[in-house]
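Researcher: We're reviewing a set of sequences before deciding which ones to prioritize for further study. For each one, I'd like a predicted 3D structure that I can look through quickly. This is Argininosuccinate lyase. If possible, include the structure in token form so it fits the rest of the review sheet.
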Amino acid sequence: MTGIIGNLEVNKTLIKQAADSGYAVATDLVDWLVRKLGLFFREAHHITGHISGIGRKKEMPS
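Model: Here's the predicted structure for Argininosuccinate lyase, in token form for your review sheet.
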């Protein structure tokens, strides 16, 4: 997991497009990671939880 998260580069433009497209809910993000990237559900859930945790630490709105 460290290999994925440690090298994660955030593309703010794509994230905004995804959020504007209705992918703002954590379950939607998990589903997208599974369908589009072919990740296993457990792995996608872990990544989504990690991303959510980063947002909470930075006091971003959920």
